[in-house]
Amino acid sequence: MRPPALQMFISTAPQQSIAPVTNLTLKEARGDRKSKGTAMALQSQIEMAALALEESQPMICLSSPDDTRVAQANGAWRLLYSDASEITRLNRLPLGLELRSVYQRVCLRNGVLENRAEVGHKWRLAAQRTRVVARAWDDELGTLNRVGVANVGNRLAVQFTKVVIQLRRVLFVPTPFLRIVARPNGPLEKEKRVPTLDLTYLSERLRLSRGGDGSLFVLERVEDTFGPLEQPGEIVDSRRGFDGATGKVEML
């Protein structure tokens, strides 16, 4: 059985879908959830449930050896819900492509974070995977994020170093050789800003995080069957740049 709060997040998703729920998909869900008012009410319920969980335990301290919850952040997580713009824009992919799932893999000991999006065609004509690899480290105490929230010890600074885009299949033919490695080159990189991620709730099953703009991420732990984590290293030397705001790969 899932914890009641986690079940509440799961129940907001459209049936037979493992893609993360967003404020857009709430409006598109079947049945009595079609109305804008109902979607807004569901968003409010999700936010209140998240706040209740965040207030139910002391704040996480990433630098404290006595905070046993820090180790729980490691592993593989599936995104259940987010209102972040980088997630909601994935609901509007071109050429019949649809978001299937989003995962985040974390290894705090090695300072590695990887975001992984699985994309497929609505008629099963193709399958694509995008991985964004990053370095992650404890941010400086007291620093303010973009919405003015001070770091109390639960904040990771994140530097994206590599984007790997792989067209895994065309029709029924595997295409592992169709692979692009690009440099992150979105608005944050162009403005030389370092993204942040606050870990606001951790348990064995559920993790809540807040982005630097206050956006909410709700994730459920899954078995990590993805193989070894790629080390982020330095930003890759590539003539291709990936703009996370548009999803486009451009020549630099």
Tell me the structural class: alpha+beta
Q: What's the pLDDT, averaged over the residues? A: 82
Gap from first CA to last CA: 50 Å
- The CATH topology of the domain at 60-224 is given as Lipocalin
Strand content: 35-45%
The gross shape turns out to be globular
Folded structure, characterized:
The structure is a single chain. The protein is of the alpha+beta class and 252 residues long. The protein has a domain at 60-224: Lipocalin. It has five helices and twelve strands. The chain has helices at 4-11, 23-28, 36-54, 85-88, 187-190, and strands at 75-82, 97-107, 112-121, 126-138, 155-170, 173-174, 179-184, 196-202, 206-211, 216-222, 240-243, 248-251. An eight-stranded antiparallel β-barrel has the order 1-2-3-4-5-8-9-10. A hairpin with a 4-residue loop joins strand 11 (240-243) and strand 12 (248-251). The longest helix has 19 residues, at 36-54. The chain starts with a helix and ends with a strand.
In short:
The protein is about 15% helix and about 35% strand. By secondary structure, it is an alpha+beta fold.
